[in-house]
Fold this sequence. Notes:
Helix content of chain A: 25-40%
Structural class of chain A: alpha/beta
Shape of chain A: globular
Strand order of the largest sheet of chain A: 2-1-3-4-5
Order of helices and strands of chain A: EHEHEHEHEH
Order of helices and strands of chain B: HEEEHHEEEE
Radius of gyration of chain A: 14 Å
Number of helices of chain B: 3
Largest sheet of chain A: 5 strands, parallel
Structural class of chain B: alpha+beta
Number of strands of chain B: 7
Number of strands of chain A: 5
Oligomer: heterodimer
Largest sheet of chain B: 7 strands, antiparallel
Shape of chain B: globular
Amino acid sequence: MTAPLVLNVDDSALVRGSVARILEDYECRLLQAGDGAQGLELACNNPPDLILLDYNMPVLDGVGMLQALRKNPAGTRVKVILLTANASPDLLLTVARLGVRDYLVKPFTPEALLAKISRQIPLNRRAES
Amino acid sequence: MMLPTNEQLAAGAEKAVREIFATQFGIELQAVPGGRSAVGEPLYSHVALAAGDIRGQINLHVGKSLAQSLLHKAWGPGQAIDAAALGEVGLELCNVLAGRLATILQLPSPLELGLPQIGASSVVELPPVSAARLYQGFWQQAGHQFQARVALGLRAA
Lengths: 129, 157
């Protein structure tokens, strides 16, 4: 069985590195993008099983990426978790309407992120080598 | 619309800073009452926020050694850290602090955060506002320095 593909879209190298470290012990393939435009391209070319999506990004923000993704046949049903510093109810309602499955407000612990991800895709620890 | 008082702003900012460092990095910062602006190689960053009629700016100084320490904690040891990565630490902290502070202070929705920017100084510049609340705090952890300045005001009519 192929390991699930996770796409993390965040303009912060700090966060991208954190997510990579959190997931390194788990059986999944991780793609990273630094803004919504890059994320959209990756998601359309190689639809992931789950997208971890930041909101506040240059070039194309998380909502803009989601809107474009949902219009693309490859992205209509992709699962998305929003990782955001902005917990504004208006934003959360907007992304819920765009089919976002869950959200996690920054700052978050590794345990909180893993719990959210494992509710969306199978997440198994890598076998000890 | 009510602006938080200076005391509420200070309490909210200190709570937000402590929570962010503890949750994201497992670090307990120590407040330095009456601290002074850091010297050495300062990394300044700032972000603008808008919530209803409230306008604000957060300006951070993250000491270089603190930025390195945070990256090591986030990425794990052995990862290459360059100048761009050090600067990005402050940008992400600005973003997260703005969001957390808005939640703690129950600022009105929608909350709009600008894209954090790297700056050349610690000066906080607000757009025209009719009242202003200011907060400045200094922290350290194992000799690493961190400084936050927060300004909030009501949008001028």
